[in-house]
Amino acid sequence: MPARTIQSGDMLRLTRDASPQFVRAVTVRVIRVLADRQTYAGWLWIECYELAPNGDAVARRELYLMPEGVRRPAAPPAPVRRRRPVAPRRVTV
Q1: In tens digits, what is the pLDDT along the chain, a chain of 93 residues?
Q2: End-to-end Cα separation, the chain, in angstroms
C-alpha cells in the first residue's frame, strides 16, 4: 500500500493480501478506522460499507486487515442510471 494511511471516505479493494478472510475480493468504502481496538502490530480494524459492483452500499461491516495488503481501485464504480417508472396513461375513447 502507498505511504498514505487509511482514512474515512477511502475506497479499498480487499484481497487475500489484506487478510486470509477475503477468499473473494471485496470493495469497501471506509466509514472510520477503529483505532481504540487492540491488534497485532501492522493490523487494524475498520468500519466500512461493502460495495456492490455498481457502487451501492450493500452491507455495513467491521473488518480486520493488514493495510500493506490493501489495494486502491483506479476509479470508483460508474453510477447506475435509474429510470423513473412511467405512470400508466389513461386512454379515453
Answers
A1: 344 689 999 999 999 999 999 999 999 999 999 989 988 898 999 999 999 988 899 999 999 999 999 999 876 656 666 677 777 777 777
A2: 68
DSSP string, the chain: --SPPP-TT-EEEE-TTT-TT-SS-EEEEEEEE-TTS---TT-EEEEEEEE-TTS-EEEEEEEEE-GGG-B--SSPPPPPPPPPPPPPPP---
Report residue 5 as a C-alpha cell: 494511511
Quick check: 43 and 71 in contact, CB under 8 A?
no
Neighbouring C-alpha atoms within 13 Å toward the C-beta of 60: 3
- With 0.85 as the threshold, say if the pTM is over it: no
**What cell does 71 get?**
489495494
